[in-house]
Amino acid sequence: MLTKLPFDAAIDLESLQKRTSEKWRHYPADVLPVFVAESDFPLAEPIAQRLRAAIDSGDLGYAQPLGLGEAYASFAQQRYGLTVDPADVHALPEVMVGVAEILRAISALGGFGDEVIINTPVYPPFFSTIQEAGWTISDAPLRRDGTRFALDFDAVEARMRDGARVLLLCSPHNPVGRVHTSEELRELAALAQRYSVIVLSDEIHAPLVLPGATFAPFSAVANGYGITSVTITSASKGWNTAGLKCAIAIGSDDASRELLRRLPNAMTERTGHLGVHATIAAFTEGIPYLDIVVAHLDGMRAQLRYIFDRAGLNAIRFTPPDAGYLAWLDCTALGLDHPAATFYKRGKVALNPGTAFGKAYPQWVRFNFATSTAIVEEAARRMSTALTQTG
Ligand SMILES: Cc1ncc(COP(=O)(O)O)c(C=O)c1O
Question: Which atom of ligand 1 has the smallest separation from the CA of 245?
């Protein structure tokens, strides 16, 4: 059964096609994009108002992130029950720039080209960013826990024992949508303590934790273990502001504070000033909007199976995510060589190919459902058409 979701009436394909962002311009106009993690939701009004005010007053100079720390501290307290000292919050242009620069800062303190543990399948820029910073990848793949993916502590420990010095955690996890439990994060923190591993926790999807899951910020868990951890996050997924270039890194122990002090001044200078405005508005006045986003995604997650089945996509397997708007689809039963390429070429619908997230996933695709029911139905229809055509 389909339900009317909060943003359904506000989203229309013709208006979206006038957008000029990556999602709407990467492929030709006749391709329906459900790939990159941008949402199709209308902009939150408090953000729109703040951006309009900045433009109207010509406030378009270099970023001066006054108020950013306080804004995040109030959000973290309200949303996660986490106490953050605003002085521990540092502005960055992007989450991944932050990861690269923190790795460089760790290198500068001694050692270069060490290994960073990741848990595939995982957000593709994890691979490139680690390499860009001069480190190498040490994969501890997620394990299958029934139909769900979860951290594999044996694999993580083996990589740590092999000498990896950093773990880049994706929490919540993209693309599998897992919210790691606090027990799991404690186990991870205990391993990090035993092997002196620094944990960088990418919590960009945390504002989008959906009903049924409880998000634990890694810094809160790490507290009792005396380990070094940095949290990196932004408002860009919850409020769809990725193009405005503003993220934050938060230190929560002496060593991580020292690392963040070593970040180049250019980090703040390269942060987008409009991004700072938008992020402050999101974290302080954007919670009612975020609640609507979460309700919409929760509803979409609940009807995705029905939409796929009704389109004849019964053979696609997926487990609804705990957080976010990405569905990680197992297309093995379709018997295709390249599922994403087939959907694109024959159905004119763009999804992310699984191999971008880990080489063990040629039969998987990632589907972005942060849109209207009508557009998700159209994407499913196109995927289904692709399966009935040949050539
Ligand atoms: C886990 C994860 N980290 C980072 C990013 C990108 O963040 P940024 O554009 O701020 O680097 C994304 C975007 O989808 C993501 O899913």
Answer: 10
Residue nearest to atom 7 of ligand 1 (CA): 95
Mutate to test the pocket of ligand 1, among 130, 236, 240 (most ligand atoms within 8 A of CB): 236
- Average pLDDT, stretch 316-343? 97
Q: Is residue 1 part of a domain?
A: no
Does residue 192 belong to any structural domain of this protein? Answer: yes
Is the domain of 341 the same as that of 236?
A: no
Q: Do 278 and 368 belong together in one domain?
A: no
Residue written as token pair 């993916």:
149
The whole-angstrom separation of Cα 355 and Cα 348 is 20
Ligand 1 closest atom vs CA 234: 10
Domain region containing 71: 61-285
Distance 205 CA to ligand 1 centre (A): 8
Q: How far apart are CA 240 and CA 254, in angstroms?
A: 32
Using the 3D structure, point to which of 239, 263, 285 is the last residue of a domain. 285
Provide the b/e sequence for 99-133 (b: ≥16 CB within 10 Å): bbbbbbbbbeeeeeebbbbbbbbbbbebbebbeeb
Number of structural domains the chain divides into: 2
CATH number of the domain that 97 lies in? 3.40.640.10
Confirm whether 52 is domain-assigned.
no
Estimate to the nearest angstrom the gap between the alpha carbon of 171 and the chain centroid.
Answer: 8
Q: How far is the CA of 85 from the centre of ligand 1 (A)?
A: 24
- The overall longest dimension of the chain from CA atoms, in Å, is 60
pTM: 0.97
Lining residues, ligand 1, CB within 6 Å: 37, 94-96, 123, 170, 174, 202, 204, 234, 236, 242, 247
Which one of 38, 94, 95, 215 would you pick to mutate in the ligand 1 pocket, going by the greatest count of ligand atoms within 8 A of its CB? 95
Domain check: are 268 and 291 in the same one?
no
209 in the same domain as 119: yes
pLDDT digits (tens, 9 = 90+) for 270-328: 999 999 999 999 999 999 999 999 999 999 999 999 999 999 999 999 999 999 999 99
